[in-house]
Write a structure and sequence with these properties.
- A hairpin with a 2-residue loop joins strand 6 and strand 7.
- The chain is an alpha/beta fold.
- The two termini are 26 Å apart.
- The chain folds into 2 domains: 231 residues, Type I PLP-dependent aspartate aminotransferase-like (Major domain) (Aspartate Aminotransferase, domain 2); 122 residues, Aspartate Aminotransferase, domain 1.
Length: 366
């Protein structure tokens, strides 16, 4: 059983994808070719913003967003401790200090009510993570941020396509960032990402940073990086995008069915009021998680853990001297989360097998 079934997806869209890639090969414009600009227009329209700037990865988009906002050494960026390492890694790469806030036990997203408590004069950005497929209450967060004059960067690497009160992920905050890593709901065939904004100046700065700090050859006006999106990857995204809404509907149907079937044996993920989820990673909370995971593995069911260790507990961040007692929900969640197979082509038969195996595992390991 596949955790994420990319083979079936390719077979379904093979003609469109192969044609799109062949067009790039025929023109031989492999970096920032016309397909890059085309997909940026399509993605901006999908999200509902003025500007999309594609980039080399979802990690690089986070770095570029903070460079654009002039995050410097000594500055503070508020973020989640329950996330993939890149969220916190990019803050530290700029010499800034990550400031953590505990998470909500149901959605695994930042507890917005705790954010104002950690804002200081050094706070230069807030970077919420839209984890596992749904956004935190970014409208509420924007009000807090505006009160203090702080920009918000949504790390929407896992939530592209999800909505909050009808607005798309990546289109609500100062800057929205997403990833096109192959395992994401909208993935390319390598690394890639994109940034979204309604601010003309921010968009222009992002484009400058993407090409080493200058749009004009041999004329560089600021420090930048090689953040360019490969044309072949842009072509893959453009070929997949027309099918994305259909996939989102399938994900929602499968995710809701999981939740209905599992609610009596574990804690399924909860979708907050006003939100939709793309169920990028369907993640439950269950006691004796490690024993359950081992049981599922024996059944041939992939059930990885996202994430077993909080960011602040990673060896690389030891110098932050974070007191884990300040993050009781994060600590508990890291011990209980387990992710189940999720993709738009998961059959009810396969889903039933997963559910019955989880129930059997839960009964055995009590």
């Amino acid at each position: 059983m596949d955790f994420i079934d990319l083979k079936t997806q390719y077979k379904k869209y093979k003609k469109e994808i192969d044609t799109a890639i062949q067009n790039v090969l025929d023109t031989s414009k492999y970096v920032l070719g016309p397909q890059v600009h085309e997909v940026e227009r399509s993605l901006a329209e999908f999200v509902g913003v003025k500007h999309c700037v594609t980039a080399s990865s979802g990690t690089d988009t986070l770095l570029m967003s903070m460079m654009t906002l002039n995050i410097d050494p000594g500055d503070e960026v508020i973020t989640s401790p329950f996330t993939f390492i890149s969220t916190v890694e990019t803050i530290s790469l700029l010499g800034a200090k990550p400031i953590f806030v505990d998470i909500d036990p149901d959605t695994f997203n930042l507890n917005i009510d705790q954010i104002e408590q950690v804002i200081t004069p050094q706070t230069k950005a807030i970077m919420p993570v839209s984890l596992f497929g749904q956004m935190p209450d970014l409208d509420k967060l924007n009000i807090i941020a505006a009160k203090h004059g702080i920009p918000v960067i949504e790390d929407g690497a896992q939530s592209f396509g999800a909505t909050l009160r009808g607005k798309r992920s990546c289109g609500i905050t100062t800057i929205g960032s997403t990833s096109f890593f192959p395992a994401k709901p909208l993935g390319c065939y390598g690394d890639g990402g994109a940034l979204f904004t309604n601010d003309d100046e921010i968009a222009e700065t992002l484009r400058i940073i993407r090409v080493h700090g200058g749009l004009q050859r041999d004329h560089y006006i600021r420090l930048g990086m090689n953040g360019r999106f490969d044309t072949i990857q842009a072509a893959v995204i453009q070929a997949k995008l027309p099918h994305f809404l259909t996939e989102l509907k399938a994900r929602e149907r499968i995710g809701k069915r999981y939740t209905e079937l599992l609610e009596n044996c574990c804690q399924p993920p909860k979708v907050a009021e006003g939100c939709t989820s793309n169920y990028a990673i369907y993640t439950i909370r269950i006691p004796n998680r490690d024993q359950v995971a081992a049981f599922l593995k024996e059944k041939g069911i992939p059930a990885p853990v996202y994430y077993p260790v909080p960011a602040y507990a990673q060896p690389v961040f030891k110098s932050l001297n974070v007191n884990k007692k300040n993050f009781p929900i994060t600590e508990q969640v890291c011990d209980e989360v387990l992710s189940l197979p999720m993709h738009p082509w998961l059959t009810e038969e396969a889903q039933d097998f997963v559910v019955e195996s989880v129930k059997e595992a839960a009964a055995v390991t009590v």
